[in-house]
Each structure stands twice: as C-alpha cells, then as structure tokens.
Automatic annotation (TrEMBL):
Pathway, per record: Carbohydrate degradation; pentose phosphate pathway; D-glyceraldehyde 3-phosphate and beta-D-fructose 6-phosphate from D-ribose 5-phosphate and D-xylulose 5-phosphate (non-oxidative stage): step 2/3
Aminoacyl-tRNA synthetase found in the keyword field: no
CDD domains found in the cross-reference section: Transaldolase_FSA
GO terms, biological process: carbohydrate metabolic process; ketone catabolic process; pentose-phosphate shunt
Protein known as: Probable transaldolase
Length: 217
C-alpha cells in the first residue's frame, strides 16, 4: 500500500519524506490556502518545491470548475514536473476533463468521491486515482469503509486499473482498515502514520532492554 501525505506544508512533507516510506503528496485548495499560497506564480512555485522534496506522485488541484478552464489549468500544472497528478473534482465537466487528460497520458486524481457510482464514472473516464473521503463520511454517520469495499469490488470485477486513494484519513485505524480491504493508497497528515509506530508493549519492552543492556557494558 502506498502512503501519501495530505498537506501543503513543506516542513511536514520533509519530515514525512525523511521517514523513507513516503510515496507521494496530496494537496487541495484549503491546504494550499492554509500555507498562505496565493497567486498563479506562487502556486506553481509551491508545487515545484514539493516535487523537489518528494520523488512520487504529487496531486495538484485545479481551482476552476468548467471543462475549458480545468483543462487549461491542468495542462499548465502538468508542465511543472512529470510527477504532477492533476486533481479534478467529481462533477460532470470533471468527468470530461478526466477523459481529456487520460487521452494525453497525464495522470489524474478525481477528488470529492462519496459514492461507488462516482468512483465507477471516474474509472470509466480513465482516472489514475479516485479519492473517496473517509473522515467526512464518518462525520455524517455513514460507513466510509463500506464505500472503500464497494469500490474495491467494482474495480476488481472489471479490472479497472484506477487506484483507490483513501482520503480524509483521520487516524491509524483508518489506515489499517484500508490496508485490510485493499485500498491502493492512503493519504493523511503525518500524525496517523506516526501513530502506527505506537504500542505500549514496545515502549515497556524497549525500556527493559535498554536497562539490561547497561548490565552488559
Ligand atoms: C485529499 O485528497 C483530500 O483533499 C483530503 O484528504 C481531505 O481531508 P479532510 O476531510 O481532512 O479535509
């Protein structure tokens, strides 16, 4: 399973990359705005900076919502680096844009997926990734893991190569459950990844080993 970090913060991206297990980065307009990135030049530079840190797929989201504007924006984003994945919202014009980029061999990530039908449409349009949002479904008392399972079944039934990128991942159990179901990628802030490290028996066991190692010196 691939691990992507879901942030536009360069320090957090570096920290995750230094762990040596990072496969890519996802961003969205909210995460970019949080870092104070504004204006065309600053946006393109920021994505270039991320590409310079991480050698993996970097999702850069279009800001527009019409077909013509999305393909114009996406074409510019795709020129930044060969690792750029153009992130497109799940709307009617978005499906057309996914088809356009797929025809040009440009990677895409269809975002804001909340149903299996949306994922199926994006896969048919040739999306490289679909991003079902787990945390936001949980927030409205809907079983987000059931959605991941449904999409897995549908993609496997028809051999779609579109990868399931589980997004809006909030905690380590989301990661474990996605791995059990067979999501291809999870994207989340660094904390849920670091939480995977934790076990009290590891801490107490290491404490004892460190103590005993002193008897050996
Ligand atoms: C990733 O592609 C999404 O933009 C992101 O995971 C959304 O996460 P949130 O629901 O925590 O904002």
């Amino acid at each position: 399973m691939k691990f992507f970090i879901d942030t536009a913060n360069l320090e957090q991206i570096k920290e995750a990359n230094d762990l040596g297990i990072l496969d890519g980065v996802t961003t969205n307009p909210s995460l970019m705005a949080k870092e104070g990135i504004s204006g065309k030049e600053a946006i393109l530079k920021h994505y270039k900076d991320i590409c310079d840190i991480v050698d993996g797929d970097i999702s850069a989201e279009v800001l527009s919502t019409t077909y013509e504007e999305m393909i114009a924006e996406g074409d510019i984003l795709a020129q930044i680096h060969s690792n750029i994945v153009v992130k497109i919202p799940m709307i009617k014009d978005g499906i057309k844009a996914l088809k356009y980029f797929s025809g040009k061999g440009i990677k895409t990530n269809c975002t804001l997926i909340f149903s299996a039908g949306q994922a199926l449409l994006a896969a048919k349009a040739g999306a490289t990734y679909v991003s079902p949002f787990l945390g936001r479904l949980d927030d409205i008392s809907t079983d987000s893991l059931n959605l991941i399972q449904e999409i897995r079944t549908i993609f496997d039934n028809y051999g779609y190569e579109t990868e399931i990128l589980a997004a809006s991942v909030r905690h380590s159990m989301h990661i474990i459950n996605c791995a059990k179901i067979g999501a291809d990628v999870v994207t989340c802030p660094i904390q849920p990844i670091l939480s995977l490290l934790k076990h009290p028996l590891t801490d107490s066991g290491l404490e004892q080993f460190v103590k005993d190692s002193q008897k050996m010196q």
